[in-house]
Specification:
CATH architecture of the largest domain: Roll
Helix content: 10-25%
Shape: elongated
Strand content: 35-45%
Distance between the termini: 49 Å
Largest sheet: 11 strands, mixed
Number of helices: 7
Structural class: alpha+beta
Number of domains: 2
Radius of gyration: 22 Å
CATH class of the largest domain: Alpha Beta
Order of helices and strands: EEEEHEEEEEEEHHEEEHEHEEEEHEH
Number of strands: 20
CATH topology of the largest domain: C8orf32 fold
């Protein structure tokens, strides 16, 4: 069953909000023509996205499908806001409102993952264009569409903290010992980072953002934020200038394009700045200029630890050159 409504251009200057059941769509006031909002039942995929149903169904439980249609071709003058008022009882066992993401269909035909802002039980996503959207939640034990990590909005607790540099802990006993033992941590000639035993990167766990490098190494697993802390600490222990960086990133998986907040580590080794890749294959170092282009990285916030004997901010030149 599909529930729908439409909103026409208002005579006064104000935002238009179309509401259907528990879903609301707010569009910019300058948008001409009508805006249609259709909400399907749980488990029903909007027609434009049915081609990816088998792939999605392997990894997610569909909470609601939203299908937008436009009678005018004018682009959005500013992003639209889509809000889902979610009943937590409809979630799979073990999942919370914070587990929910959205998959949107872009005009290019690509699919992008969006990270909702959560206030109570209301989930809001920002849409640069109108199109079909699925609200989804990952099945326990499975990684959302193959991309762990890009599931936070805004920033991490670590980067937002005044003591952020302290999370890069090269002098922590276990971290220092591992960094000094080439059998446990090394960088090969292909810039692959060899950590024994390897660190398993999982989905983002907001409750675990405050773990230290020692705690993460002991667990043997962690999300992208945890991985950035571990590798930044290990590389700092080897004497390199390092920093934690957070911002927007894009990862492509076939036809799926994952966009969202990501926290990563960067290091300057032999004068070359590197991005520490932890979400795609083996952990490895990629030159920052190459990584910024590949991952469409946009840095919002950083904190650094400078190597002994280095004066000033070694990343300042890097940023000035790249941006």
């Amino acid at each position: 069953m599909v529930f729908s409504a439409c909103g026409k251009k208002a005579s006064e200057k104000k935002s238009r909000v179309v509401t259907v059941r528990n879903v609301s769509l707010a569009v910019p006031e300058a948008l001409p023509g009508e805006v249609h909002l259709a909400v399907t039942g749980a488990g029903v995929v909007p027609p434009p996205m049915q081609r990816i149903t088998p792939r999605v169904a392997e990894h997610v439980a569909i909470l609601a499908g939203v299908d937008f249609r436009r009678t005018a071709d004018a682009p959005l003058t500013e992003p639209a806001q889509l809000t889902l008022d979610l009943d937590p009882s409809t979630l799979p066992a073990g999942r919370t409102v914070s587990s929910v993401l959205a998959v949107s269909l872009e005009p290019t035909g690509n699919l992008a993952t969006l990270v909702p802002t959560v206030v109570g039980n209301k989930l809001t996503v920002t849409l640069p264009q109108l199109g079909a959207v699925l609200f989804v939640t990952s099945v326990p034990g499975a990684l959302l569409l193959g991309t762990p990590g890009l599931v936070l909005g805004g920033t991490s607790k670590i980067l937002a903290a005044a003591d952020c540099p302290g999370w890069i802990a090269p002098d922590a006993p276990q971290t220092a010992a591992i960094a000094k033992d080439p059998a446990k941590f090394s960088i090969d000639d292909k810039k692959t980072l060899r950590l024994v035993p390897p660190l398993t990167v999982t989905e983002i766990d907001e409750s675990g953002q405050s773990r230290t490098s020692e705690e993460i190494l002991k667990r043997g697993s962690g999300d992208a934020i945890n991985a950035s802390v571990v590798y930044a600490s290990l590389l700092a222990a080897k004497g390199y200038s390092v920093r934690l960086a957070g911002g927007h990133a894009v990862y492509k998986r076939g036809e799926l394009v994952h966009k969202g907040f990501h926290q990563w580590a960067e290091a300057i080794i032999d004068g070359t700045p590197y991005y520490v890749e932890t979400l795609d294959g083996e952990p490895r170092l990629i030159p920052v200029t190459e990584a910024r282009e590949q991952r469409q990285l946009k840095v919002h916030r950083t904190c650094a630890r400078t190597a002994p004997g280095v004066t000033g901010d070694p990343f300042e030149t890097v940023d000035a050159t790249i941006r």
